[in-house]
Amino acid sequence: MSDSVRSLDRQHVWHPYGPMPGRSEPLVVTDARGVRLTLDDGRELVDGMSSWWAAVHGYRHPALDAALHADAFSHVMFGGLTHHPAVELATRLVEISPAPLEHVFLADSGSISIEVAVKMCLQYQRARGRSGRTRMMTWRGGYHGDTFAAMSVCDPDGGMHALWQGFLPEQVFADVPPATYDPAYDEHLADLAARHADELAGIIVEPVVQGAGGMRFHSPRHLAALREIADRHDLVLVFDEIATGFGRTGELFAADHAGVAPDVLCVGKALTGGYLTMAAALCTAAVAEAVSADGGGGGLMHGPTFMGNPLAARVALASVTELLRRDWRSEVAGIGEVLTTGLAPARSLPGVRDVRVLGAIGVVQLDHSVDVPVAQAAAERHGVWLRPFRDLIYTMPPFVAVPDDVARIGEAVVAAAAAG
Length: 420
Ligand SMILES: *Cc1c(COP(=O)(O)O)cnc(C)c1O
Hints:
This protein folds into two domains: 1-60 and 327-419, Aspartate Aminotransferase, domain 1, CATH 3.90.1150.10; 84-325, Aspartate Aminotransferase, domain 2. Helix content is 37%, strand content 17%. The protein contains 14 helices and 16 strands. It has helices at 2-12, 50-53, 62-69, 84-96, 110-127, 148-152, 183-196, 221-233, 255-258, 285-292, 310-325, 328-343, 372-381, 403-419; strands at residues 29-33, 36-39, 44-47, 101-107, 135-139, 172-174, 200-205, 209-210, 216-217, 236-240, 264-267, 279-284, 352-358, 361-366, 384-385, 392-395. The strands form four sheets. The chain has a seven-stranded mixed sheet, with helices on both faces.
């Protein structure tokens, strides 16, 4: 049975960022409960990745399962129709996000919410009679998704831009943000924005943590600088919190570290606790007004078939409710403490450039590319699922992971760093 799954997978199924057929054989998951993945050979692995930031409550969580299994309709179109799950979710997101964000566009994935955010920026400028402002400013080292507008603001070196040259819009890039606050970097951002103000529609960044672009952390003070710069030139400030939203960095939203509110906020990944694909772009009244004005386009020009999917909205609402019901702040802080202790031995390993922990995120950066199969095999020997990339072995455990499981993840990361 599992052999046929393997060979059919190899014959027919693409996996992320891979060739066809794949270079390595994926593990076959037959069940997932709590923080554990069960494999077809009977092994159980502690999930160190939360299925790419999403499964913050682990798998088969009773409250989330109940939301999905309730006697509920599956989907209705969102054009001209509405329903309780979408309205309640949107209202809840407005309540818990930074104050000026009032309106919610429900999208079907993180990348699509970025496309929507970019449309908001362009339509905002158009409403102000500045239709020539069509570029976005960002900093290097970012990751915003795999659709074209999203890719265009990803790191130009690590983000596969060379592959799409001639097709991808050319955006305005600042240097990678420094690891600790540097006033000279604020000046660099201000200069760049001033030089390009006539052609810029908005600024988009991942606040505090750059995820898939390199797992780098930066000072929240640079976000305050971006807010000022955006105001100075009337640019729409977009924070991509698809990875950082819902507590991962130790605040509910990473923007909260800086006490700065964006004009547009994108959330996804942990929004549904990893159950179904859904994301959202939240915006201020000023952005909504401009987008809706005749000059701005008379409305937001986007409308996915599965917009506001009721099942996804129900499970998202259950996920947010569950998160806020628990003491997520202590859970995240506790994971951070165990990871800080657990990853410390990696500092003295040869080939390790840096070890860093923020919130419930732990990163070991090597001075060379990870030998991924070797590193993964080392982690599996410790009973842990990790997915290193480039020079990074990293973990963002489910918030419900108990200290023993987090400690085991820490050992696995160190073992993977030593092996890979
Ligand atoms: C994952 C991610 C995205 C893309 O989300 P998808 O749901 O994969 O399209 C965008 N931005 C950030 C910061 C992400 O981590």
